[in-house]
Design a protein that fits this description.
about 800 residues; OB fold (Dihydrolipoamide Acetyltransferase, E2P); ten-stranded mixed sheet; 14 helices; 39 strands; globular
Length: about 800
Amino acid sequence: MPVIVLADGAEPGGHLTIIPIAHISIDSDHSHHSIKGRVVHKGPLVSSPIYHFFLKAAIEEENCGPQETSSINMVLLGTLANDFSQAVNQGDAVTASGFTVGKSPTARKDKRHLFNLLLSGEQAVIRVSPRPPGDLPTPREARTTKALPPPAAVSSAQKYTYVKLADLKPGVVVNVYGVVVFFKQPFKSRGSDMCSSLKITDQSEQKISCTIFCPKMESHPQIFQIGDIVRLHKVKTQPYKDSLTLVTTFGFNAATFSGMAGADMEPRSSSRTFSLSEEDRRMVTELRSWVASQNLLPPDLTVALSAAQPKMYFDLTCQLLAKAPVDSTCTLLRVWDGTRCPHALLKVRVDSNIVEGPTSFSEEHDKLIANVLVYDNHVRSARQLKPGDFLRIFNLRAIPGSVKVPGLSSSQVEEVNHLSFHLHGGTAYGRGIRVLPDNSPDVHELRRTMDIFHESNQEKHPEVNDSAMWGVWNTPPESPVSGASMEISTERRCDHDVRPINLGELMCCEPGGVHHVRAQLRSYQPRRLHRALKLYCSKCTSMQDVPDDERVANVYAEASAGPSGPTSPPPWSLSGPVHLAAGPAGHTLNVHLSKQLTSEGRTKELIFLTGCSLQDARHLAATYHNVVPVRWSRGGDLVLLDLSVPFLFRGRKSFYGCKQCSEGAGVREPTADGEKIMDEKDIAEAFGVQLMTFVLLLKFRLRDAGDTLDDVFLWRDAETFFGVSAEDAAVNQQAQDQIRQTLDSLCPPEGAGGDRPWLDLCLAAYNVIESNNIENTPTFYQICHTSTRSHKHLQR
């Protein structure tokens, strides 16, 4: 073992002579020498394409002469670097042997020895004596450690007083709660602000109008339906005719809650410093109970496409698939809600070059898509929408009869007896568009409806690729699109005591440390985000692209054309070949069931498929839990397919093995552990497969006021950064949308509205050593200990 941890009080053994650090020389033979010192610097463990791992550390010698160099850098490679990272802490005493000596490229900067120590391979050994509890810091630590200020006192949350609507007096700034009985979505005022209006009431049954002026859409109360509960802070009462009205003042903010009894307390807040007290919870609960006991709310006008009728005005909850400008006063939105309108719908043909989002859909999906024409003042709101957004469109009109789309007179054919959907200009009857948050109950219900359609359609048409319908993960922003509809910021989640520096200072720092910077994201790669998904082997630290369906299908086709196999089943098979009429086209599949994993009433079967296609495997995996495609070897044994393709399917998930680290043996009888349902790790271990995991890998280009920094990578902490797992991003549309929306917010395409936010980042600087050359190695940077958050949905 290259890193040996000594017991308390033990001295490092061995026959080697410990020499002073000052005696290290490139001209001397140090094969019989070792050096001893205390760790004063321990850099991060980073990956290297040659040595797998790389780590830089520094040790300082105690009791050295006043004129002697007391510290030296060490470069650790391979397994030694990994073991050192896990076993050694700053302040520990170490003794190193089996090293070679090279010139230190950072000696002038760090004032350490002119040479450094390179440790790698079996001959290199490090013995470590852990630092005793309460031990005093080394001289170098005492000089470099900064005294941390005491934690600031946390003030208690500000307590707000709320006034009943019947007790309002003119000319007073107040805080109020109320139930929405009328509202208009924000629209552009004559000045620079957006304007919205609403009318609220409470248990006093007093109805009060409110006029909101705010420059940004998200600062307005996010009201989705009559009956929502709003909390308004810092509004002023003003006389208006024979009543009072509320207007915004400095410091205004709003929070909106669902008015449904029993709903959660998650608010839609316009404030970045939102707080929710027990008093707030009590008031919301009381208003919900009061609303449930009253008959003051109008009927819900939300209608699914399947219930839309000619001449109807209704509210539609839907998902935006694509959009395109028709002319300066009209925008086309292509939407769906998982249901099919019973009437023939208007078809709108636009140039595919101006469409944002997918330009074509399968025949089955196309039947569910409705074209919504958005006019006049709502065009501004439509420009902010992104394909994939969930929307509530208020006061949508279904128009029957002969329709000709404006702006397309030269190419659009007049269609007769087709139903068309129009969102007219103006704000009457609450007319407008709102983006629904992901945690909205309406979005959850909409997703369930879409899931039902998806599952049903896959059973009927498994050959249909519905990636266009199910999101825009594979659709990069290659053309200018409108800015994101939410604001994203970053926050560091580390405890590093380092001062923030600019990018120019960062590029002058030596590798091996962590740094705090503030910069903007200017560009990222890959632009096609599905290519950011990689397969990673934790054993050999290799990384590879996820193979596309065409490549996987070819491997399965070649396996199907191979030997057909013996007529007798494997000894561990349940009952020989089992023919299931489960093929996509009704054909049978040759199936072998593992007898030890089949349990009555439980999904424990492990199904081995021979002669199957990729389509067969995925189709069967939708019904059965564990599906393993196999082939017959020339020796008459069942073996796994080439590990460049999935070796296991579980539902929508696919699992891959590392070709380099897997044993590659034939399929063996797996063993079951009582009633435990085996997971993918158990199955991989039974087959001798080294399981690979999904990771996200992106390269950023950062810029601050004076400099630009390339080669900034995000992968080890990518899941923390985006708040989603790479495994979910491989199969889950919501996770894909979150990554895409985050990047669109941090790095809006050129020509899009909105400013690029300034990001607070923690960066680790490191070298990648190639060909045993530790000098003049390029420096790279990796984003670590950093996460993003939406200003709309802050966690409290």
